[in-house]
Input
Amino acid sequence: MSPQNDDQNIKLIDRFSLVEKILMRIGFYGFIIVGVYGIFTVSTLWGAIYIGFILLSLSFGLLYCLCSHCPYPYQFSTCLFLPYGIVKKICRFRSESMNILEKIVFMVAILGLVVFPQYWLFKNYTILIIFWIFCLPTLGGLLFYFCKRCRHSCCPFNSARKKTGEGT
Output
């Protein structure tokens, strides 16, 4: 079967399994916690600033800009990052597409969670390696598995809409 035929036969995900949710949450929150720890071992002030960035990124960049447009918590009763009931209580579902500002804020939030701690992590290679042990499989799983099969058609990382024609 050619790659083109594989792309046309993409099966979109309706529900995330318990194992998928556990692994994604361990990886995502794991690299964030390791990043916080790594920064705090060098600078309490910058550790506190990173915690502020995390809270802003998760509440505004992730929940408001991305999750409020995502069909999974509202239509499929599932979520990779939080229990779906929490997302439904915190965010009102917005069926319109993400605007350009929301896409930028979301991408800056995700990029910042990964890039922000790097300066301090390079001061301790063990913590740096642990950070990337959590981070790489998590981001790789998102980009190369979940994003290729995702129903969140307005997410900037979604590649399923290009292959299935949905959300275009």
Confidence is low (pLDDT under 50) at residues 1-6.
